[in-house]
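Quick one from the shared queue. A colleague (R.T.) flagged Homoserine O-succinyltransferase as missing a structural entry in our internal table.

Convert sequence to structure tokens.
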Amino acid sequence: MPTAFPEDSVGLVTPQQMHFSEPLELACGRSLADYTLVYETYGELNAARSNAVLVCHALSGHHHAAGYHSTEDRKPGWWDSCIGPGKAVDTRKFFVVSLNNLGGCNGSTGPASHNPQTGQPFGADFPVVTVEDWVHSQARLADVLGIQQWAAVIGGSLGGMQAMQWAISYPQRIRHCLAIASAPALSAQNIAFNEVARQAILTDPQFHGGHFMAQGVIPKRGLALARMVGHITYLSDDSMGEKFGHRRKNEQLNFDVHSVEFQVESYLRYQGQEFSERFDANTYLLMTKALDYFDPASKHDGDLTRTLADVEADFCLISFTTDWRFSPARSREIADALIAAQKNVCYLEIDAPQGHDAFLMPIPRYIQAFSSYMNRITF
């Protein structure tokens, strides 16, 4: 546990809250009468308010992207390897905003929040939200912070989808879009994995139609299974082989179908159990649906080039060779559409064995490329 923080850390950070009383109309046809967003900031906003960077999180992410909440923290924020003094997103240069999206379970208004109409938690009554809804809510936060244009909007995976949506929905409010390990829409296989994860939650006897909080229970089994399925897809065969191989916990076989005999089994069960104790089941359902629904080209008959015709941002797309969930081919789709639309785009394919989770890791070649692009951004 750190008593002194590393020199390249943003150090102690305190989450902030912003409440919005103006209703937010959602793509599903419903609206939120009011809502709260929790966010953190790192670095200083310059006088011209031109150095702001928005960091968008992935499925199970949140606002705590860098630094520490206390000296007792064992780990820093989820993207601390990339955000801080001298890092890719250099907080000596940029003012960084990282938030927890609507529907989340880390402080922003979501299924676990109080529903003023019932006096109970929203639970399953919380409306379905989309990537486009998130971007509109983020634009309102930018307005309150006095940020008329982001120097860059950055995200990996589902976060990269948000960055792309920013460039589409608010072309004049973003100068650079960095979409890392992302895609213009999910493949059928990806949607299938999400559905298996959702079914694990929906069929848990403790789910109670999404109103488990009123029953004083948590669908831990379903959440754990959902996390186990997801976690397998975030890793590559090579990385799992290197980490676990065919190694067993004990020398002797138990010949018991109920026992945990292989190290990979033990690892997955631990990951599932840990996740089930910190994440909300309804939030998981919402986040995976937001992933499934993301398809901005659908508004232009599936033509991604037409969809990107009005974007003004320069793009940086980064993919990883062993990422089979968001494969390099999907990033190349975006790059090809941008080139066809005569937009500025930089595409990097990083040779890395870590699979989809590579975007969270301090892989030297990746960090070098990421830093190089960010260093090009001027105000």
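The longest helix spans residues 131-145.
Residues 16-185+296-376 form a domain with the Rossmann fold fold (CATH 3.40.50.1820).
Added to the table.
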